[in-house]
User: What shape does this take?
Amino acid sequence: MNNETWEFPFVWSVTNATATAGSTRILTMQINNETYQTSNWSAINGYNFRLILELWVWQTNTNTLTYGWNSNGEYRTAWLQLWFNMTTPTPPPPPS
Assistant: This one.
């Protein structure tokens, strides 16, 4: 419906990754209890991964999903990005 708001949980975790030669690659993720394989998602030393979420709208007149919607003569879109690092913490130095 117009101006309706939906809210739902978005729970995610990386379930499998590799790190070689200065590159960290995510192989699988779990999002809301569903497992997804990823391809070519890597970051140098595990820094600056980015996950982008987009709002797509179901068009009842055409039975299709579209990115964005018309509102008062303007076309609008909604998206957000989550930046995260996946690094191994550096252990503290031994006591002297």
Remarks:
- Residues 14 and 29 are 4 Å apart (CA to CA).
- Residues 12-84 form one domain.
- The two ends are 66 Å apart (CA to CA).
